[in-house]
Design brief:
The structure is a single chain. This protein has helices spanning 2-14, 28-36, 39-42, 53-58, 98-105; strands at 21-24, 45-50, 60-62, 73-78, 86-88, 114-116. Helices cover 34% and strands 21% of the residues. It has one domain (2-116): 3-Layer(aba) Sandwich (Rossmann fold), CATH 3.40.50. The two termini are 15 Å apart. It is built from five helices and six strands, in the order H-E-H-H-E-H-E-E-E-H-E. This is UDP-GlcNAc:betaGal beta-1,3-N-acetylglucosaminyltransferase like 1. GO terms for molecular function: glycosyltransferase activity.
Length: 118
């Protein structure tokens, strides 16, 4: 229920202002967010970004349960190659400050360039 309410808030308050966005985290939470979005908002997702070379080398995330044909394939990029705005699905204080340093290095403004979801 909490997850559903948070996604609804995101879709009502944040995503209407963005024509396209990137999900920061190609892992479990980022993919879950992507699958939870309404179809119109899923189409706004231009990429996932991450720091995990294994995920980046895979190159894309394919949403296998999608009704569309062909199945949506969303690119997975290194965070430096991705374009804002970002929906960030990374918990703070779990990486010894590495995530926070990466985010700070991009000189983004919260609310305009990114929204922290997790």
């Amino acid at each position: 229920t909490i997850w559903t309410l948070r996604v609804r808030f995101l879709e009502e308050r944040v995503l209407p202002h963005w024509a396209a966005f990137t999900i920061w985290n190609a892992g479990k939470q980022g993919r879950r967010l992507y699958r939870s979005l309404e179809a119109a908002n899923r189409q706004k997702v231009v990429a996932f970004c991450d720091v995990d070379e294994r995920k980046i080398k895979k190159g894309f995330y394919c949403y296998e349960d999608a009704q569309e044909r062909p199945k949506p394939r969303v690119p997975i990029l290194h965070f430096r190659a991705a374009q804002p705005p970002f929906i960030i699905c990374v918990k703070l204080d779990l990486t010894g400050g590495a995530f926070e340093d990466n985010l700070r290095s991009l000189h983004l403004q919260e609310g305009r360039d990114f929204f922290h979801f997790s």
